[in-house]
Description:
Rossmann fold; globular; 16 helices; binds nicotinamide-adenine-dinucleotide; about 40% helix; 2 domains; eight-stranded mixed β-sheet; alpha/beta; N-(1-d-carboxylethyl)-l-norvaline Dehydrogenase, domain 2
Amino acid sequence: EGITVTVCGGGNAAHIAAGMFASRGATVNLFFSFKDEAERFKAACDKAGGVTVTRKDKTYFGQPKVISHDPAECIPMTDIVLLIVPAFAHEPILQQIKPHLKDGAAVGAIPGPGAFDLVALNALGDVFTQKNITLFAGTSLPWACRFDEYGAKATLLGVKTKVDITTRPNNDAKRNAWLADALTRLHDDTDFHCRGHFLMTTLWPTNAVIHPGVSYGIWHDWDGNPLDEAPLFYQNCNKFTGGVLKGMSDEIAATVEVLKSNGADLSHWQPIDVYMLDVYGDVISDHSSVDRIFATNDAFRGLKAPMITRDDGKLDPNFRTRYLTEDLPHGLAVLRGIAEICGVETPTMDKVLLWAQPLIEKEYLVDGKIKGKDVAQSGCPQRFGITTPQQLIKGDIVSLKN
Length: 402
Ligand code: NAD
């Protein structure tokens, strides 16, 4: 059908995209921010003749057309630019590709948490309207995956059957339908639906809630002594941790109500337990409460908390992982900032955020407000001068705090 997709990022998920999308007839380019990464990927991929993705009962094989760190070589002919990278990479990538975007291109992130639209509007500036760009973001990556041989082989461990996306501008039904259809055709076994206000993706109760919340549950009363073994991250989920997750989900739900009463279409938003059962229902054995839903999810079996090994072989928790470095500035701090604007009390989010932010030496929540120095490198609406629910819904940048 002649569609050209450029995937930005060269990690686990980019391998799957390269192999799967090309095998489904699309022209696929890979854009890397880093030259050495591009060269390494290209050399391995050329040698193997393409990327092979292995799944339980299927394989996908495809060859990317352009693999480059030079946006001029891959962006100008691209219909859909898809960022599949940790959220802190969104802004630098958008800055790099911005001068090269084709008129009418769709530019999106999957997953696209943490007010991707505001971050993108800020990064793209006038290009957004001048080039008629459609921004989009997906609630979650449709895959659990890992690469086995860099640039050549990857394994697809699990596939979600549906993923919701939101778009900006959102008033062109034909354009939305085209995009959802194009993404559905690129992916094998995942249906994409475009629905609701962009805030729905940002408010989705996924990693932003789960990673900081479970980390807090495990470590909030840690005595500082090293451990012999890494604790299981999800399977140990107890009443306390379940309460933290539910508490934050309830605070988002209250925020959603305020935004709905101000006119935002957030009717498809789901609380954390409903969402988990919706995507993982079959592999969760106990549906009775949030803690049991997490503790008995087979997809999470065996996953351990990130640790650092000391010289004597004992283990300390590792807090400098994406569970906090990505999921605070492009996750929990954004949710807290939106709740603040909506006048919603957030005792649970505050507890988690105040515990977590010093562990990565960042300040978002200060004196009860999202006004810390590191808000300037986040997706918090406060960074963009937004102070009212109406401004949140309109979604324009009011003024920039740097
Ligand atoms: P990854 O760590 O394998 O890939 C990261 C890639 O992002 C790097 O290879 C690099 O190309 C790029 N990158 C990193 N920092 C950058 C920066 N500062 N500037 C520009 N580029 C940068 O990640 P992944 O496993 O492919 O996951 C991608 C996204 O999907 C993440 O947000 C992750 O949380 C999410 N996710 C992954 C899985 C999975 O199974 N792999 C599952 C669910 C969600």
